[in-house]
Amino acid sequence: MSLHLKPSTRLLSVRDLHVNFTSRWPQEPNIDVLRGVSFQLERGERLALVGESGAGKSLLATSIIQLLDSSARIRQGSVHFEGQDLTQLSSKQLRQVRGHRIGMVFQDPMTNLNPNLTLEQQLLQCILSHRNISRAEARLVALHKLRQVHIPAPETRMRQYPHQLSAGQLQRATIAMALALEPALIIADEPTSALDVTMQAEIISLLTHLCHNNGVALLLISHDLSLVAHASDRCLIMYAGQIVEQGHTKSLINDAQHPYTQSLIRALPQMSEPGQSLYQIPGQMPFAQELGNQCAFANRCEHAYAACWNQPPARTVTLEREVSCHLVNPATAPTPAESEP
Amino acid sequence: MTQTLLSINNLYKSHAAPNHNSAWWNLHKTSYINAINGLDISIKRGETLCVVGESGCGKSTLARLVMGLEKPDAGSISYQGKIISGLSDKARMPYRRRMQMVFQDPYTALNPRHTVLHALVEPVLYHQPKLHRQHAIDQAMAQLLAVGIEPALAQRFPHQLSGGQRQRINIARALMVEPEFIVADEPLSALDVSIQAQILNLLAQLQSQQQLTYLIFSHNLAAVEHMADRVAVMYDGQVCEIASREQLFSQPQHPYTKALLAASPQIYTPPNKHHRLVGDVPNRIPLRHVQHGCSLQDRCPQAFETCRHQTPQLTPLTTQHAVACHHTQPPVSQGNSHDPEH
Q1: In chain A, what residues touch B300 (CB-CB under 8 Å)?
Q2: Per-residue pLDDT tens listing for chain A (341 residues)
Q3: Cβ separation of B265 and A229 shorter than 8 Å?
Q4: What is the rounded CA–CA span in Å between residue A252 and residue A265?
Q5: What is the ipTM of this complex?
Q6: Which residues contact A155 (CB under 8 A, 6 or more apart)?
Q7: Minimum distance, in Å, between the CA of residue A92 and any CA atom of chain B
Q8: Distance from CA of A255 to the nearest CA of B (A)
Q9: Which residue of A has its CA nearest to B163?
Q10: pLDDT digit string (tens) for B281-298?
Q11: Which residues of B touch A115 (CB under 8 A)?
Q12: Among A108, A116, A103, CA closest to A162
């Protein structure tokens, strides 16, 4: 890290992260799935990561906390968290970070908790493995956290097994577990996709509330722009292993620059009149091994022109927006003749 | 268009409840959960009726009852005027062909050991055993084209397909036996926003081509607003509001409907915190314990005295709109409330 950055507010900084999967067959090349991801996260900030499935959102989350599959490898880049490069830490040092400094909330609360242990056992296990306090004290911490996430009658609930709670309560319990050690960052990977709209609204307002009151930073992963629109301060749009656009959520939604962001917004059902046919993004996301020397979105983009097929777009940085698109880059933007279809 | 295709009258269904929380001396007694609690709905030919509600309100049970996968405790389901809910499996066969189901999760609804072609041909040969196999294969190929899947994918297995493709195959399989009526239980909830758009367009296109009638269960209100003709809001096994799409989304009357609409994320308007409900669906009420009053009374911000002891009935407001709430009903019940905020 360079010295002139303010270390007090910067919490997480991911630089040029490349993750590849080793192929099972020696003659096949390794596949780069994350291709140069860079972003920063300040303390107490709510950052959303949006993209279709297969874009690499969950892979990015697992490579931040170094929980990658054995066939995946960080080929290049760094993940600086609170001044440490997580990619360089030993597994013993990492255990001090995971759960303790970074809490994680996964998609499906039913499979995320151990069905054989009561909530109390699981919460205490989590707290006692990181803190040198007595069981009774740990129990008080757990109760306090369950109250904080608005679980009714936490004393009774603590003695129950996961199947005795509803899905919304379970997801709140996993948030309590992620919060138990007062982490600086919570990574929530599609925390509401297994839940109803009413429960979704409650979980999102709970996470927002925690960020505002406790100064916890949030990395919220979702595929739904309308969900993150009011639940995040900044937003990253991810496509085919790269961040194609990032900026403040409000301005990004009101003035999307990248064609992919524009089409994600247009594809929402509320964006077209009832009964009319919806806009659908043509084609499919390319496989990582099929990406040549071109823009990854070129085959689905309405505005693609010659330059898009010849070279990958460079990142264009304006005051508060970063876009990777030839159209936005003044150096490569098409002349009026080229942009005619 | 005005002919009633399916009508559900005063339907009841309860499930045996697991007795986890009971003391050991009560373990031999079975308690019951009312999943469907006196429900009335009718569906006209050619329309799309969407049923919305939280999980635990009985949506999936209703879908299974309509399809005949479960038998109701009381009440009846009739299809084109004939009661089908009490029929034997054999007598039901002709109806099974006319109504088909699309399941929620496209990943588990297909047999992983069967190719796409096998999955599509199987229902045809089941309903028409004398049909030549090649005939069925030709039909399957035509159906694949109709749902926008290349016929080259017919020999693939489900794991080789994307989520959107699998949901298309599920829809194609339901359409193979040329049904008139499609029941879809949360057809979009496992899909991405961009694929949701594709499936919504496909459903609309198939409906206009083949004059299908849809009964769609969902909690995605944005999608419901897009595709429904009429919307029924379900709570605790009952319909609490039913209206045409325009009326339900522009003038919701029931507090529960208002809460659902407020919870649905909107991209440009910030969330509305005034209509928030607290707590969960009351899904652990044993049959023996008779609950008085409105089932929403504990969660409703506007509940007043009448709600505690009198169950609201579904009352029509206009020809297109019916609500079960004391607040929208004639002055007799509202006379008790001096301050509806309490």
Answers
A1: none
A2: 444 544 468 899 999 999 988 877 777 777 888 999 999 999 999 999 999 888 889 899 999 999 888 888 899 999 999 989 999 999 999 998 998 899 999 888 888 899 999 999 999 999 999 999 999 999 999 999 999 888 888 998 999 999 888 888 888 899 999 988 889 999 999 888 878 888 888 889 889 988 888 889 999 999 888 889 989 999 999 999 999 999 999 999 999 999 999 999 998 888 888 878 888 888 888 877 777 788 999 989 988 888 889 888 888 888 789 999 998 888 877 766 555 54
A3: yes
A4: 10
A5: 0.81
A6: A143
A7: 37
A8: 12
A9: A53
A10: 554 444 444 567 888 887
A11: none
A12: A116
Q: What contacts A34, CB < 8 A, 6 or more positions away?
A: A17, A18, A19, A56, A59, A60, A63, A241, A242
A9 is written with which tokens?
């507010």
Print the SS3 string covering chain A.
Answer: CCCCCCCCCEEEEEEEEEEEECCCCCCCCCEEEEEEEEEEEECCCEEEEECCCCCCHHHHHHHHCCCCCCCEEEEEEEEEECCEEHHHCCHHHHHHHECCCEEEECCCHHHHCCCCCCHHHHHHHHHHCCCCCCHHHHHHHHHHHHHHCCCCCHHHHHCCCHHHCCHHHHHHHHHHHHHCCCCCEEEEECCCCCCCHHHHHHHHHHHHHHHHHHCCEEEEEECCHHHHCCCCCEEEEEECCEEEEEEEHHHHHHCCCCHHHHHHHHCCHHHCCCCCCCCCCCCCCCCHHHCCCCCCCHHHCCCCCHHHHHCCCCEEECCCEEEECCCCCCCCCCCHHHHCC
Inter-chain CB proximity B194 and A168 less than 8 Å: no
Token pair for residue A220?
């919220």
Q: In this structure, what token pair is assigned to residue B107?
A: 């990943």
Q: What are phi and psi of B199, to 5 degrees?
A: -70, -40
Distance from CA of B41 to the nearest CA of A (A): 23
Q: What is the pLDDT of residue B53?
A: 87
Q: Tokens in use for A190?
A: 């599609």
Structure tokens, A206: 């709970």
Paired tokens of B93: 């066969």
pLDDT tens column, A227-284: 899 899 999 999 999 999 999 999 999 999 999 999 999 988 888 888 788 888 888 8
